[in-house]
Amino acid sequence: MLKKFFASKLYRIFDYAMRLILLNVMTFIASLLLPLLWSLIEVSPTFEWVNDIIFIPMFFTLIPSIVSVVDTIRGYELGLDDRVFKTFLINFSKNYRVSMKISVILLIVAIPLYNSFTVFNSLKTQSIANAIGYILTISLVVIIIFITMHLILVVTYFRDLRLIDAFKLAATFAFKDIFGSILILAAFAVALIIAYLNSWFLVLFSISLPLYALVKITKSKYKRIYDRVENNFK
Q1: Can you list the residues of the chain whose pLDDT is less than 70?
Q2: Which of 12, 102, 117, 184 counts the most CB atoms within 10 A of its CB?
Q3: Radius of gyration over alpha carbons of the chain, in Å?
Q4: What is the Cα–Cα distance from 95 to 118, expressed in whole angstroms?
């Protein structure tokens, strides 16, 4: 009976859900545990300066953790691996350099975008030009999110690409399948809303579940090209 249960679809769903939970928890431990714990502490005025630096370590671990989770889920979907902890750590190390390059680029882009959003948001009701600037800033943010989502996929599927080439391919994927990109963004938005409302979802699924959606929605397109590239090098 146990053998039949372990071979059942219900068990496979449960097993996959447990993997996603573990990946989510590992991402939290690697990137978000310190800020979350600090947020629970009633800070005296003497230590308020810590609020300004508590998120700095996250810069060095968040994107690498996200890329590692995507690479691990990609391995599950392609039947390459079924482990969790060891695979996560291997992928974290293997993708760390390119992940940090992406982190630096995102930081450089985010600073002027944040400044532009703040300025146009405060002035958007004062003139048409400011309203247009506000809309263009939001549009640019969405475009960058689309490209970043696919860039994470590209660097895990095609490791030998230069980052500039990976960026071009990610942009192509992002807008060639615009419906898929919108669907992925919607999955992230829904996960963000649920995580805001439910702390259990935040801890268990808020990162790994939308990343699973990212891999699952794009699997057929990326796998087709991935298999073609692999066959060319055999």
Answers
A1: 1-7, 42-45, 47-49, 51, 230-234
A2: 184
A3: 20
A4: 33
Give the pLDDT score at 76: 94
Tokens read off for 7? 């071979």
Task: Report pLDDT for 7.
Answer: 66
In the structure encoding, which two tokens stand for residue 1, read together?
Answer: 């009976």
- Which helix (DSSP H) or strand (DSSP E) does residue 204 occupy? helix 199-204
Amino acid symbol at 223 = K
Report the C-alpha gap between 219 and 83 in whole angstroms: 20
**Which among 59, 106, 226, 210 is positioned nearest to 155, based on CA atoms?**
226
Token couple for 67 = 């890329």
Give the distance from CA 65 to its chain's centroid.
Answer: 8
CA distance 218 to 230: 18
Rounded Cα gap, residues 69 and 214, in angstroms = 11
Cβ density class 37-64: b for 16+ within 10 Å, e for less: eeeeeeeeeeeeeeeeebeeebeebbbb
Please choose, from the candidates 223, 217, 206, 218, the residue with its C-alpha nearest in 3D space to the C-alpha of residue 80: 223
| C-alpha to C-alpha distances, 156 to 59, 75, 151, nearest whole angstrom | 20, 10, 9
Please report, for residues 138, 192, 234, the alpha-carbon distance to residue 145 in angstroms, rounded to integers and kept in the order given.
Answer: 11, 14, 35
Residue 186 structure tokens: 């919607």
The model carries a pTM of 0.90
Report the alpha-carbon distance of residue 162 to residue 36 in Å, rounded: 35
- Return the number of other C-beta atoms located less than 10 Å from residue 164's C-beta: 8
**Tokens 């943010």 belong to which residue?**
141
| Distance from C-alpha of 215 to C-alpha of 222, rounded to nearest angstrom | 9
